[in-house]
């Protein structure tokens, strides 16, 4: 008896949908921080003038990301942050033309909102 290969989540189609949902949320001004305290250091390292500058930046970066850049777990891990407890986390690492280095972005989506979990230069496999 031959076992069929099990399709691992998330699929390319699902990742495309999540990336589009993320763009739509940010275009509608629905960007929130899952944990402001942990985001503060990352945002400082990105040398953004204001924390509000992160949303237009992420919107630009989302246009650089492809489903093949997904580096999260399969199936996606779930968040332990209070605001997004139990929501799936989507992590991507890619060569950013905008920031001119390999970047890592992790986010969650909930009810039409984009939740920033992490954005920083890629550390490769230690990011998960």
Helix-strand layout with pairing:
Layout: H1 12-27, E1 31-33, H2 36-45, H3 54-62, E2 90-96, E3 101-110, E4 113-121
Parallel strand pairs: 1-4
Antiparallel strand pairs: 2-3, 3-4
Structure summary:
With 128 residues, the protein is of the alpha+beta class. The chain has helices at 12-27, 36-45, 54-62, and strands spanning 31-33, 90-96, 101-110, 113-121. A 4-stranded mixed beta sheet has the order 1-4-3-2.
Question: What attributes does this structure have?
Answer:
4-stranded mixed sheet; 23% strand
Task: Give a verbal description of the structure.
The chain contains 3 helices and 4 strands, in the order αβααβββ. With 128 residues, the chain is an alpha+beta fold. The protein has one domain: YaeB-like fold (2-Layer Sandwich). Strands 1-4-3-2 form a 4-stranded mixed β-sheet. A hairpin with a 2-residue loop joins strand 3 (101-110) and strand 4 (113-121). The radius of gyration is 15 Å and the shape is globular. The N and C termini lie far apart (36 Å).
């Amino acid at each position: 008896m031959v076992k069929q290969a099990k399709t691992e989540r998330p699929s390319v189609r699902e990742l495309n949908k999540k990336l589009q949902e993320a763009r739509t949320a940010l275009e509608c001004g629905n960007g929130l921080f899952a944990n402001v305290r942990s985001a503060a250091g990352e945002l400082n390292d990105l040398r953004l003038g204001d924390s509000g500058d992160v949303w237009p930046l992420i919107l630009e970066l989302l246009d650089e990301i492809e489903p093949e850049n997904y580096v999260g777990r399969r199936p996606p891990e779930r968040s332990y942050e209070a605001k997004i407890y139990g929501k799936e986390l989507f992590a991507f690492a890619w060569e950013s033309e905008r920031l001119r280095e390999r970047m890592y972005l992790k986010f969650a989506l909930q009810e039409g909102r984009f939740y920033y979990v992490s954005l920083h230069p890629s550390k490769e496999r230690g990011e998960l």
